[in-house]
Write a structure and sequence with these properties.
CATH architecture of the largest domain: 3-Layer(aba) Sandwich
Strand order of the largest sheet: 1-11-8-7-5-6
Largest sheet: 6 strands, parallel
Low-confidence stretches: none
Helix content: 25-40%
Number of domains: 2
Strand content: 15-25%
Distance between the termini: 53 Å
Length: 295
């Protein structure tokens, strides 16, 4: 079976063209969208992600500020920094890079973020608004997957979408977005305590996988003609690679590719869409600042 390769790289480039037009209109009004990223500690994976955000902001003409903070900062000191960012008119959106050090209450930190600047869509107010279909921002990865489906012409109405994984970052918001009007899917969520994951994955018209297990989904776990969105990013050993490792998804691409109607690759699939959605949220926050009468 021939399949459609759902390229997050291509789709994000299309969206970036639209974002640039919106940024140009904002600059005509004297507003430069501003993003701040607060990085507590020196987690290597977080540093790579933060650098990619900085590069994309520079490409798009978004003001970018990365605030590096020692991991021995107190919770009260971080809350003071959040209070400052909430009131800074030059910063339209910001995020606190997770994970935080163990001595901090992550929920308390997230709850302190101004929901109108919460471009990660982690604040309970924004999560609730998303759940009832009255969103300000889309969560970065699920919002990116949504765009991948829409812009690839994948019909979701009445389709059975199975989400593998129930994290607050991907699985739960993914399910919430797919049942909204406009997407209109029937959604099942399976997770580590589900009795037989493959029983459900074989029923999926569209399968979204976010479990963090390399090559977890095999051909015998999907039905013929399924659409696969692979959210996983796992680094495995590969002696044939110059670096000795390579990136793979949660889906065994080579095993399933002849059975699917469409599939996203790793890398080049969901990853580019995550940053794209974040950039879209930053511009949205800047647009909202006009509506609220502040710059």
């Amino acid at each position: 079976m021939s399949y459609l390769l759902i390229s997050g790289t291509d789709i994000s480039n299309q969206i970036y063209g639209e974002i640039r037009e919106r940024i140009a209109k904002l600059k005509e009004k004297g507003i430069i969208p501003g993003l701040a990223v607060v990085m507590v500690g020196d987690d290597p994976a977080s540093q790579v992600y933060v650098k990619s955000k900085e590069r994309k902001c520079k490409e798009l003409g978004i003001r970018s500020e990365t605030i590096y903070i020692s991991d021995n900062i107190t919770e009260e000191q971080l809350l003071a920094k959040i209070k400052y960012l909430n009131s800074d008119p030059m910063i339209h959106g910001y995020l606190i890079q997770l994970p935080l050090p163990d001595h901090m209450d992550t929920d308390r930190i997230i709850n302190a973020i101004d929901p109108k600047k919460d471009v990660d869509c982690f604040h309970p107010e924004n999560v609730g608004r998303m759940l009832v279909g009255d969103h300000i921002f889309y969560p970065a990865t699920p919002g990116g997957v949504r765009q991948m489906l829409l812009r690839s012409g994948i019909d979701t109405e009445g389709k059975h979408i199975v989400v593998v994984g129930r994290s607050n970052i991907v699985g739960k918001p993914m399910a919430a977005l797919m049942i909204q009007k406009g997407m209109d899917a029937t959604v099942t969520v399976v997770h580590s305590k589900s009795k037989d994951v493959s029983e459900f994955t074989r029923q999926a018209d569209i399968l979204v996988v976010a479990v963090g297990k390399p090559n977890f989904i095999k051909a015998d776990m999907i039905k013929e003609g399924a659409v696969i969105i692979d959210v996983g990013t796992n680094r495995i050993e590969d002696p044939t690679s110059p670096k000795g490792t390579r990136l793979v998804g949660d889906v065994d691409f080579e095993d399933v590719k002849d059975k699917v109607s469409a599939i996203s690759p790793v890398p080049g699939g969901v990853g580019p869409m995550t940053i794209c959605t974040l950039m879209d949220n930053v511009v949205r926050a800047a647009e909202l600042s006009i509506e609220s009468g502040s710059k």
